[in-house]
Amino acid sequence: MRPVKPNEIRALSDGELRAKIDEAKGELFRLRLQLATGQLDNPNKIREVKRRIARLKTILRERELGIR
Questions:
Q1: First to last CA, the chain
Q2: How far apart are CA 30 and CA 60, in angstroms?
Q3: What is the model's pTM?
Q4: Of 53 and 2, which is predicted with more confidence?
Q5: What is the CA radius of gyration of the chain?
Q6: What is the pLDDT at residue 8?
Q7: Distances (CA, A) of 14 to 3, 21, 23, 32
Q8: 10 near 56, Cβ under 8 Å?
Q9: For labeling, which of 28, 38, 53, 64 is most exposed (least CB within 10 Å)?
Q10: Domain 6-65 adopts which CATH fold?
Q11: What b/e sequence results for 28-51 when a residue is b if at least 16 CB atoms lie within 10 Å of its CB, and e otherwise?
Q12: Rounded distance between C-alpha atoms, residue 9 and residue 17, angstroms
């Protein structure tokens, strides 16, 4: 999956952002499970998903504070 640009994230509604966060958290859970069982091919994927979650949460928080 390609990295999502902040402008693309900002175009989403709050509900869509929350859904994307939940989806990414599920993916992170699955990746951690694969890591624990030795089935994960690319450990860098965990880092990418964590960063995606952080981007989504940051933009959601900006909206809550009325920054952008």
A1: 26
A2: 24
A3: 0.87
A4: 53
A5: 13
A6: 86
A7: 19, 11, 14, 27
A8: no
A9: 38
A10: Helix Hairpins (1.10.287)
A11: beebeebeeeeebeeeebbebbee
A12: 8
Chain centroid offset of residue 24 CA: 4
Q: Which tokens hold the place of 23? A: 């989806």
CA angle 61–23–41, rounded 5-degree value: 120
68 half-sphere exposure, CB direction, 13 A CA radius = 10
Give tens-digit pLDDT for 13-55. Answer: 999 999 999 999 999 999 999 999 999 999 999 999 999 999 9
Maximum Cα–Cα distance across the chain: 43
Q: Domain extents for the chain?
A: 6-65
- Tokens 């928080």 -> residue: 61
* Per-residue tokens: 49: 């998903």
Cα–Cα nearest to 34, from 50, 45, 24, 23: 45
